[in-house]
Structures are given as C-alpha cells and as structure tokens.
Amino acid sequence: MEKAQLVFVPWPGMGHLVSAVELAKHLLTRDQRLSVTILILQLSFINSKQVHNYIESLQASSSTISNSLRFIILPKDEPELFNFTSFIERQKPHVKEAVLKIIQSESTSDSPAPRLGGFVLDLFCAPMIDVANDFDVPSYIYFTSSAAFLGLMLYLQKIHDEEKFDPIEFKNSDAELPVPSLVNPFPARVMPCAMLRREWLSPTLENARRYREVKGIIVNTFLEFESYAIQSLKMPPVYPVGPILDIGSVGSNAPQEIMQWLDNQPLSSVVFLCFGSMGSFSEDQVKEIACALEHSGYRFLWALRRPPPPGKLASPSDYEDPQEVLPEGFLDRTAGIGKVIGWAPQVAILAHQAVGGFVSHCGWNSVLESIWFGVPIAAWPIYSEQQLNAFEMVFELGLAVEIKIDYSKDSEIIVKCDEIERGIRCLMEHDTEKRKKVKEMSEKSRKALMEGGSSYFWLGHFIRNVMAIK
Ligand code: UPG
Fold first, then answer.
1. How does pLDDT run across 81-98, given as a tens digit for each residue?
2. Separation of 273 CA from ligand 1 center, angstroms?
3. CA atoms within 13 A on the CB side of 171
C-alpha cells in the first residue's frame, strides 16, 4: 500500500492551529494511507502556554490516529520588531531542516517510508511554497476563513497589481466595490481593518499572489453555506471541506460551575457574549456593554477579557476581579440573571439548550460553531477579516443581526449602550425568520460532512489528488 505524508504549517494562533489539527484528523480518519506532521511556529505575542498545553493534551490522547499525527515545535526565531514577512522568511530554514530530518529518520526505519505528498500551508504562510518547491512537492493552502474573504483577498491583489490601486485608499471611503465573491456591492466602510494597515496589507497581498501558484486551496466552509462565493472562485481548485470544528470533546473539559449555571436557565433564554482568542474592549466600552445587558433584562453569560497593555501585541488575559472594570454594583444587581467569566468553553456553551443568541466578533470558527449549533449571531467584528465575515452573515446570507459591522479596534469609537441593547433585543427575539434559517443551515452543515455530503465529497477529492501525484 503506497503511503503519503503531508507536512502542515499552520499559523500558531489558536483560531488557526486548532482548525488545522482538526483538518488533519479528518484526513487521517478518512484514509489510512496518509500521515501528517504539524510544524509549530513560535511567536511571542501568541499565548504560547495555551498552544503548548493544547499540543501536550493531543499527544497524551491515545486515539486511533495518534500514530499518524505528530508535532514538531520549531526553534523560536523572531525578529526584534515583529514584521510578518521577515518572520515567515526566518522560519523557512527551520521548516526545511525539520522536513529533511523527517525524511532521514524515515529512510533508516524498517518499514517503507511514506512519500512526501505535499505541504498544507496556512493562509498566512504561502511564502513557504518556496520550501515545498525545494523538495519538489506540491503546496496546498488551508484557508481557515471564508470563501468570501478568499475572494476579497484575490480581488484586492488584482486591483493592486493590475490597476495600480492602493487598497489603503479605501480608508474612510464611501465607495462600493464589485467583489466577485459577494452578491452585493461591498461598502469600503466595512473593509476588514487588516487591509487598511500597511503592515498587514503588504503580506496579505503577497499571500494572495502566491495562492495562484498552489495545487489547491482547502477552505473551511461548505457548499450549501457559501455557494455563491465558492462558485465565484475559479482558480486554483478550491476544496470546501468544512465545517472543520473541534467539537469532539464537547463539554468534557468545561468548568462545572458554568455548565451548572446554564443547566438552571430556561430554554434559549441566555445571550452569550464572546470575542475570540484575541478580542477585548477598553474599559469605557465594557461599561456600555454592561449597561446594555442590564437594560435589556436578558439572561447573559459574558466572556470578559482584559486587553493587553496599550501598543503591545499580545493575547488578552482574564481579570482577577472583573468588578474593577464593570459599573459599580453591576455584578450584584445582575447576580440573578447573569454570569461574567474569563476564557469560555465556547463550544460547550453554544451546544447548551439554554443559549438563545451569541454576540460574536465573527471570527470564522465562531461563525461556523454558531451555525453548527443553530445559535444566531449578533455581529460585532473587532479586527482581522471579521468585518467581512459580519457583512456576509448579516447582508449576504441573512443569518445574523447587526450590532456594529463597521466597528474595528482601530476606529476608536465607542458603541453606545442603546445600540448594543437594540442588537441584543433583535437577536433574542424568538421565532424570527432568521432563527429558522440558522436552524436549517445547521442541519445542512451536519449533512455536508456525512457520507454523500458535499464536504465529504470534496475531502475525498482532495485525498485522491494527493495520492495521484507522483
Ligand atoms: N474560544 C473559546 N473560548 C473563548 C474564546 C475563544 O473556546 O473564550 C474558541 C472558540 O470556540 C473558537 C476559537 O477559540 O473555536 C476562536 O476562533 P475564532 O472565532 O475564529 O476567533 P479568533 O481566535 O479571533 O480567530 C482568528 C482570527 C479570525 C479568523 C480566524 C480563522 O482572529 O478573524 O476568522 O482566526 O482564520
């Protein structure tokens, strides 16, 4: 039996890494001829303890696929001042050396060595194609965000390179753009804030340029969900294999205190607020959210996190005592209806029947998790490409309500209490058309992964492609 090995290079942020690991698990469960090595880049502004604990827990688990999945942590080598391009450049020799070692160690083992089948690179790591080329094997991208965003990246790169238009000029613009992956004209005011900052725009355009060289782009989405966007992407081949989610151990590690609190709440009564692995707000903004929750009177579960110090790139942390940022007496007055927590067991919470709505930053994993569990979203994007995800969910797909889709952490505006309250009320209304649509999409997401489903088909197609290349 011919075997093939894939080398994954994920971005080390949890939103990317966990998704890549889950993709690897899907591949390994589906085809025993495959094995996967995941190379872990180290980056100081990402919570490395969380990353290491996560990998250790995977290594300790004795699943049937653990023999075919391994991790190699690459040496820490980061430029003094973080710069995306030079960070990736410095990682290339480490990636090359790790892969050479794998090949050498396998050539000395007794059993026949698996063929190096290719590299699966994170959406931020496309320049690693150079390393794959050195080994003369194909590269694929694993795109952990939406097909719509992939379309926007390719569109911006095209107008930049062919029409010599600088996308930074979309800042404060009223233009509406004909982005091929969107049905509606795309208002520049909701341009993802990452595209409006030179330090992120340049590497994003460079990544998009390199996408055109790869053998295929695996996207964490599914045909029934983003059909228009997926069909708009002509080249290179796109494999919509999602939703790829970490829901295997729903609830098993969730703190009992939170789950018991949810157990005591009525069906679909709780609004859950959570803003991803890097999302947090200023103290003034926190007070407006608290005011909105109190006024709305809805039950709530709020993952409240402390932002990193000003000017520092770092993951948010938990407050020792959230009272220090909340309005005076807030916790006492809402003790009967609400709970403030730090890091949330998000999947277990969304799976709980007491949860009726999700105020989210629209990180793509959160969007997919909300769809999977049929919980509607009120969109409040903060950074990265989240503004586009929010636009897609609210206006393209009609699956979410808006809190403020043109918010960004760079905009320095404060969303006021009444605006947030209006969004929460709209979200928590029952029996709305949106709620019904979300439930229907939830069923479709589950069917897509089953044998005979669209994502099942595309994953098989990807594997056939990998195995066919010699
Ligand atoms: N999560 C928790 N508890 C928390 C916060 C997050 O379990 O308190 C989980 C959540 O369930 C999800 C993941 O962490 O699985 C967060 O992923 P996501 O919702 O995608 O947000 P980010 O961590 O912000 O993800 C980054 C980018 C985002 C992008 C995504 C995928 O910020 O914009 O869509 O990566 O590329």
1. 788 889 999 999 999 999
2. 13
3. 13
- On the question of pLDDT at 254 being above 90, the answer is no
Judge whether 341 and 304 are in contact, CB under 8 Å: yes
CA 14 to ligand 1 center in whole angstroms: 7
- pLDDT range class, residue 213, cuts 50, 70, 90: very high
CATH number belonging to the domain at 256-445, selected among 3.40.50.300, 3.90.550.10, 3.40.50.2000, 1.20.1600.10: 3.40.50.2000
Q: Answer whether residue 65 shows pLDDT above 80.
A: no
Q: Is 351 in the pocket of ligand 1 (CB under 6 A)?
A: no
Segment 362-369 shows an average pLDDT of 98
44 contact partners, CB below 8 Å, separation of at least 6? 76, 78, 82
Confirm or reject: Cβ of 274 under 6 Å from ligand 1. yes
Active site residues: 16, 122
Q: Rounded to whole angstroms, how far apart are CA atoms 470 and 466?
A: 9
Q: Is 232 in the pocket of ligand 1 (CB under 6 A)?
A: no
